[in-house]
Prior knowledge:
Strands 7-8-6-5-4-3-2-1-9-10 form a 10-stranded mixed sheet. The chain starts with 16 loop residues before the first strand and ends with a helix. The longest helix is centred in the last third of the chain and has 16 residues, at 319-334. It is built from 12 helices and 10 strands. With 335 residues, the protein is α/β, with parallel strands linked by helices. It is globular and about 60 Å long.
Amino acid sequence: MEKPNPNNFCGGNFQDWLEVNLIDKCNGCCSWCIEKNNWHPKHVADWKTLAKLIADCDKTNIVLLGGEPTLHEHLGDIINEVKKRTPFKNIFLTTNGKVIMDNNDYYIAKNLKNLSCVNFSFHHWDRNKEITGIEIQYDSLKRSVKALHHYGCKVRFNCNCIKGYVDGLGSVHRYITFAKSMGADSVRLAELKLDEDHFVDLSDVFEGEFGLNKDPFIHGCNKEAMIDGIPVYFRQMCGYQVSCRPKHDFDFSENKKSVLYYNGEFYDGWQTKEEGVKMSKDESMDKEREIKNLLVAVSKNLISPQRAFEMINNMCGGVESAQKEYDRGMNHCRY
């Protein structure tokens, strides 16, 4: 069995990161969105529960995702509460930008001032609406970037390279020029996942420069470079995500990234509909499932044993009952 490059997600890198599926709703319409057809739990935890789980988890870097996370009515409450409880954590937000561009300074001051970085997902400088349904409001976007910088928040522009849009050196340089003109601090160029018809091979675009390659599983899927005076990060797809790349024999469960869903539960990676059904035959958040989930989180160092015990104590209504449930659950988690 071959091992992946240690700098890859699956190779054990980025283990100090927690991704949060904050909401299933989105105001965009990306045809290649991998999340829209995935599993979405019916239960929605309140924002205070989510904030506590994020603050208590043993991860330094938190990425708020969706859906479109700016549609969450308590986004600012979650961010501000996490930062208040754990000021050392870095909180990142990935967004299509519409809500921010529509509301500018007031929205940013109320909701986003405690972020470390905002990742704007724009996939073309003037044809973004064709791709995502979101039109870029240039003046508003520039003001928004300036407002984010005022609070010490970095800004990155994320671009999925799509055939017919950003798919060659000329369009890459044009996109970077756009990002710089809006005040972005960096750019991320990514290959599409599970979309062979619109796939753009970055190793072809850059002719193997910057370490871009035909077998990212072995040679690394995350690269970076300075292009036109701005940091550019690359994300390539391996044979498990696109058929044009070699597929290696590897057990990906070993280093799966933890994902906290908006129902207040931690999962190993993003859940497909099939995985979601297996993990939850019904959608209720009964006591047994809540306790099991908390103890799984303890076993993965996502939450401290003391914090888990406190939460179980609240559910069980007494220290003796809580200790019994905690011990019983931990015994199950070990085997």
